[in-house]
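Dataset card, provenance and construction

Sequences and ligand SMILES were collected as paired inputs. For each pair, a complete structure of the chain with the small molecule in place was predicted and serialized as structure tokens. The example below shows a pair involving adenosine-5'-triphosphate. Curators did not alter the output after generation; any descriptive sentences attached to a record were derived from the structure itself.
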Amino acid sequence: MSDLAIELFGVSKRFGPKVAVNNVSFSVPRGVVFGLIGPNGAGKTTTFSMMCGYLYPSDGTLKVMDVDPVTPGALKGRLGALPQDAVLPPGWETGALLTYWARLSGLADPEREARDALEAVGLMEAWKVQTQALSHGMAKRAAMAQALMGRPPLVLLDEPTAGLDPRIAAQVRQVIRDMKGKGQTVVVSSHNLQELEELCDAAAILDKGALAQAGTMSELTGQGSEFRVQIARGTVITPEIASIADVTDARMEGESVLHVRIRGGVPPEEVISRVVGHLLQTGVLILGVSRGQRLEDRVLQLL
Ligand SMILES: Nc1ncnc2c1ncn2[C@@H]1O[C@H](COP(=O)(O)OP(=O)(O)OP(=O)(O)O)[C@@H](O)[C@H]1O
């Protein structure tokens, strides 16, 4: 068994003349929460659909849990998916629908699975509610409950928190953390980059169908390679900071933020301590230190 849940090698998807995904390669290790990031039309949903086996790639190869996802039945019981804008069929009570789906999936105790999944997404009150009477946020959570049933080792969630109120969105994030805690791999797409930064161990950033960057969250946000010191008072002599061991660059951003780059492979806490020590010795007062940059800033810089 590979230690990767998903591998993409040179994957492309064309719809006629439209190239939706262009020669994309990245991998998702098992047991992590992995983000799929990109602006509208970047190719996230198309990539999700190929991972689920709903679409064939036009080129390249894709392995999901060591199998080709389009092989019939290969991912049965091993993959749960929340498609974007999932629509629940009308005319069903929510609990009965989930129970029916659990039965179709061959789960041992379908009603128990349905109840546990609805409970996990905080929606037990909808058990007897007709699907067409659910609010947008409730329908989204019911669709997410479907992806959780049977506790599959891999769960793909396309914009699980879009349109949810902040309290419910926080609850959904907790469900995702709990899945990781139980050893499941979760791939999640969202336009909320603060949410992904908080939630994900690693991510891939797509732009116009191509891979802009992939890596751990710490790599993407440069947490090991740069930091900022917010200055309260005093004069920073940047050439002095730049000459401190393992500092490769130091410059002021505006009047009160010192931006420092660190040599690769050096523990950042050591360099931060040296720089802060030097600043204090020279009478500079500090308000705070932050490592790397926000994911949102990184993405805006890349795209
Ligand atoms: N069935 C299709 N036929 C033609 N073009 C398509 C089809 N599906 C997607 N596309 C195009 O492929 C590109 C990528 O679409 P996709 O839905 O994967 O993007 P996305 O990153 O999920 O966007 P969003 O954030 O808006 O959901 C877009 O330009 C879209 O118009």
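Derived descriptions for this record:
Residues 15, 18, 20, 38, 40-46, 84 surround adenosine-5'-triphosphate (CB under 6 Å).
Residues 166-181 form the longest helix (16 residues).
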